[in-house]
Amino acid sequence: MYSRGSIYMFALVSALIISAGCRTNDELKLDERDRFSPGGRISYEIYPGLDRRRQGALIDLVTRPSGQEGEKAVTARSAGIQPTIAIVGEIAHVEGSDRQQVQAGRQVELDVVIVGPATVKLNADNLRASLAARGGVRFFDVLSLEAILGLRIDKTEVRLRGNGLSGTDEDVRAGLLLGARATVRPIPQFDLYVQYTESLMDHFAGFGGLGITTSELQAGIDLNLTRNIAIFAGYRWWTYEEQSLASGSDWDIDIRGPTAGASLKF
After folding, report:
1. What is the value of pTM for the model shown?
2. What was the pLDDT predicted at 74?
3. SS3 content of the chain, % helix, strand, coil (to 5)
4. Which candidate, 210, 103, 118, places its Cα nearest to that of 165?
């Protein structure tokens, strides 16, 4: 007959053996600063239209404003308080890399399983584009407060390397885009802006075993070369969170740094 103590000891040893063979996937975290993110924007202002904005782009400083003879220039006072509606397209790119320690008894997974202890190298490359309606209210052509609603298409590639193994995953997804933008135009030559957007995404094919959230915060300045052409510069924060519903590791990516590009306005 086995004693009660022997039974307890057998159960404890069995549990230790089972737990040693069961490793939990760690989340993969990529955090990088000072990565340059180029981009571009194109917008069409449906209402009130560019002709209802104050003249004074940089080219206006060296040439006379165009317009019919006798036409009164738009001033902040004459612009008044107006609703706004515009269609805006935007594209941006960013990439980054990081390293992560995997402790003994833990593992990470992306097509391949890398068991700790190990140092793994992480890479991410993202290209995204959006088309959205942006509307709100503009106060005296100085301050604009607008909401954003549209569609974002996102192409993200993530790579994992360590212990002589490597795994790669690349997907294209679409999601509803929501956000807000505040713009200050103290003088017609430039705009100061802050914009936040967020999108919930999944695979085009439907339920792809992933739940993905992306968010982006931009702060910068538009330098208005002409009424229709501007260049912008600023800082951009981009985050990507992927929750795997299968057995793979979750991803948490945070890349931030300077941004610059061109903006066309019609």
Report:
1. 0.83
2. 86
3. 10, 65, 25
4. 118
